[in-house]
Amino acid sequence: MRVEIRSQAGGAGISMLIGILVLAGYGLGFEPLWCPVPSLPGTHPVTAICLVLLGLGAWPTTSQAATWRVIPQMAVGIAVLLAVLCVCDHLLDTHVIGWITPFHATLRAQAASGRPIHFAMNSALALLGLGLAQFLLPHGRIRTSQVALFFSGAILMTALIGFLDGLGRFHDFMGPLTLLGSAALIVSVLAAASSGGFLAAVLKDSEPGRLARMLLLSCTVIILGIGAIVARSVSAEDDPILTYQTVALLALTWVIVVASTIRADMIDLLRRQADAKLIQDASTDALTGLLSRNQLDKVLSEPHGDSTRTAMLTIDVDRFRSANNALGTALGDALLIQTGKRLSAVAPHYKVARSGGDEFVIFCESIDRAAALQLAEAVVATMAVPFELGGRQFRVTSSVGVAHGGTSGAADLRDAADEAMFIAKQQGGNQAVPFVKALHDARMERVRLEQDLHRAMGCDDELTLVYQPIISLRDRGIVSLEVLARWMHPVLGAIPPSRFIAIAEDSGLFLELGRKLREMAVRQAATWAVTQNGCLPVINLNVSPLELARSDVPGQLMAAIERHGLRTSGFCLEVTEGSFSDERALEGLQDARRRGFLIAMDDFGVGYSSLAQLPRLPLSSVKLDRSFLTRATENDDGLSLLATMVQLSHVLKLPVVAEGVETLKELDIVSACGCDSVQGFIFSRPLTAAQLEPFLLANRPWPTEQPVFVAS
C-alpha cells in the first residue's frame, strides 16, 4: 500500500475512533472518554459526531459502486451542515445547536459543576474547513480544497498556542481530543490532496520540496513559541485579537512559503526537464529516434559477458548523397527515418544506432557468426525493398560490414565492421561483407603506402622513370620513348605502377604525382638534349582524363619545356578513349594540339568510341591494343581484323603502333599487316636513363623523314 493511502486511512481511522470513544463515554457516563484531562475542556458530542462523519468521508476506497461513493459524500455534507449551524449559532445567538445535541442530561450536569462543554466557534471553523476540503476534493477543486485545509490547520495551531501558554481564551472551547481528532483529519485529507495542487510541490521528494517542509516546520514552531510567550503577557480581553493575529500570521507565512515553493519547484522541474532533454539528446538520435553515436560508445564501453559472441553491423546507404540531392533534404530525412524503422524491425532484439549521416550500426549480443551473417543479409534484403517517398517509390541499396567477436583479428568490432563495410562499397554495394583479417591487413598496408607515397613525392630517390623504346619497322630506328613511372620503396622494394597509381587516384595525389613525373621527364629530356647534341626521339607522357579535366596539363607542361629550352613537338600526350568522352578533357587535348604537342590514342579498339569520330579528334597517331595481335595469332578472322584496323588508320593518315610484340611470329604479323612501328619485349624492356644512353648512341642518326610515332 502506498504511503499516501496508509496516511489517509490512518488519519481517518484515528478521527473516527476518537469520535466513537467520546460518544461512548457520553452514553456510558464515563467522563475520562470525553474529558481525559480534568483541567482542560472536554469534547462536545456534536464535535464527536463531526469527527466520525468526517473520518468516514476521508476513508480511502477503491470501490466503483455508487453506494460507496455517495455515503462518504453524505457524511461529509452532514458534518459541514453541523459546523455551519454551530457558526450561525455563535454569530446569531440562536441556540439552534442545542436542539440537536444528544446527551442533554450529561451536558446539564457538566454546566452545573462549573465546567460547561461547548461546541466552540474555533472547533466549528476547523471542522468546517476540513469538511469543505473533503467535499471539494472529489470534484477536482484541489487548490481550493488545500486552502480550506490550511485554514483549519491555522486554527488548530492557535489552539496549540493556548495549550502551550495555559491561557484560557485560547483553549477553553477546544478540548485535547478535538485537537487530536482534527489533526488526524488534516493528515488524512493532506494525504488525499497531495497528488496535485501546490501541496504536490511541498510534499515532493525534491530539493524545493524538502526546503519547503523545513521552512514550514521551522516557521510554525517559531510562531507557536512567540505566540505562547506573547499570550502570557496580555489580558484576557486581548486574547481574541491575538488569536486572529496569530491565525493571520500563520496563514500568511504558509502562503509565502508555499508560493515560493511552487515557483522553486517549477524552476527545478524545468531544470530537470532540461537535464533529461540533454541526456535524451545525447543518447537518442534527433531524426530517427535510434541510439546516438554517444550512447553507442557508452554501450560498447560496458562489459558484455562473452565478447566472442558479440557482433556489429555497419550499414551505409549506397549513393545516399545523390538521392538526397535528387529528392531534397526533407525527403532525404524521410528516407533516413524509414531506414531506421526498417533496421529496428529487422533487428528487434539488438541495439540499433545512427552513427552519423547515412550510416547506421546494429550491435548484437549473444549471437554466433552464422546468425550475424544471416542478419546482415536480411538487412541488405529489407533495404532493397522500394521506399515510399513523396507519393512515389524510390529504390536504394545498402553496403553492410559484419564483424564478429569470434573472428581472428577483430579486436575492435567498430573498426572491423567499418573496414568490411568499406570493402562492400568498393565492390559495388548492395551486399554484406564479413570482416576478414587478410582484407584488413591489405587495407592497412594500402593506408601505409598512401602515407609513404606522400613522403616519396617529397624526395628524389624513390620515384624514378624508365623508358621503353618504340621502334620503326622501316629501319629499326627509335622514333619515341614511352615514359613509365617506378617506385622503389625503401622497405617493400619495387611497388607496381598499377598499385601506387591507384592509391594516388583514391587519395587525391594523382594530379600532384602526374605533375612531378612530367617535370622529371622534361629534366631528363633536357639532359639528353645536351649529351645527344639535340637529337632526341619524341618523349611520350601518359596523361589520364582526370588530369586533363581537372588541371591545365598543356600549360604546366609547356612552362616546364620552355624553362629547359625544349620544343613542344618533341613531346606526345598519350591518352585513352575516355579523354575524348569528357568535354573538359577533350578541350584540354585540343589546347595541347594547338600548342604543338602530339596526341596519341592508347589502347585503340577496346573502348566504345565510334569510328566516325576519329577524323574529328586531335590525334597524331593510334596504338592498337595487344588483344588484336593475340587474336591475329589464333585465327584468320583475327588477322583480317588487325589488317583492317591498320588500313582504316592509314586512310585517316594516322600512323599505327603495335603494342606488346614479344615474338618473331608476332613481329612478322604486324609487319605484314602494315603497322608502322612496334613496342615490346622483342626489342627492349623498359630501361633506366643510364641503361638507355648506349642504346640511343647505337641507333643514331634518327629517321627525320618519317612521321612521329607514339607508344604506351
TL;DR?
The model is unreliable at 701-712 (pLDDT under 50).
Q: Could you explain how this protein is built, in words?
A:
This protein is an alpha/beta fold. Helix content is 58%, strand content 12%. The strands form three sheets. An eight-stranded mixed barrel has the order 8-9-11-12-13-14-15-16, surrounded by seven helices. A hairpin with a 5-residue loop joins β8 (463-472) and β9.
Give the % helix: 55-70%
Question: Averaged pLDDT, please?
Answer: 81
Read across the widest sheet, the strand sequence of neighbours is 8-9-11-12-13-14-15-16
Categorize the overall geometry: rod-shaped
Distance from first to last alpha carbon:
91 Å
How many distinct beta strands? 16
Q: Mind telling me the C-alpha Rg? A: 50 Å
Most strands sheet: 8 strands, mixed, barrel
Share of β-strand residues: 5-15%
Name the quaternary structure: single chain
pLDDT < 50 stretches: 701-712
Structural class by helix and strand composition: alpha/beta
Number of helices: 28
Write the layout of secondary structure elements.
Elements: H1 3-28, H2 45-58, H3 66-92, H4 96-99, H5 104-112, H6 121-136, H7 142-165, H8 168-171, H9 176-193, H10 197-203, H11 207-231, H12 239-283, H13 293-301, E1 311-317, H14 320-327, H15 329-346, E2 351-356, E3 359-364, H16 369-384, E4 387-389, E5 392-394, E6 398-404, H17 413-426, E7 431-434, H18 437-457, E8 463-472, E9 478-489, E10 493-495, H19 497-507, H20 510-531, E11 538-542, H21 545-550, H22 553-563, E12 571-575, H23 578-581, H24 583-594, E13 598-604, E14 621-624, H25 626-632, H26 636-651, E15 656-659, H27 664-672, E16 677-679, H28 689-698
Parallel strand pairs: 6-7, 9-11, 11-12, 12-13, 13-14, 14-15, 15-16
Antiparallel strand pairs: 1-3, 1-6, 2-3, 4-5, 8-9, 8-16, 9-10
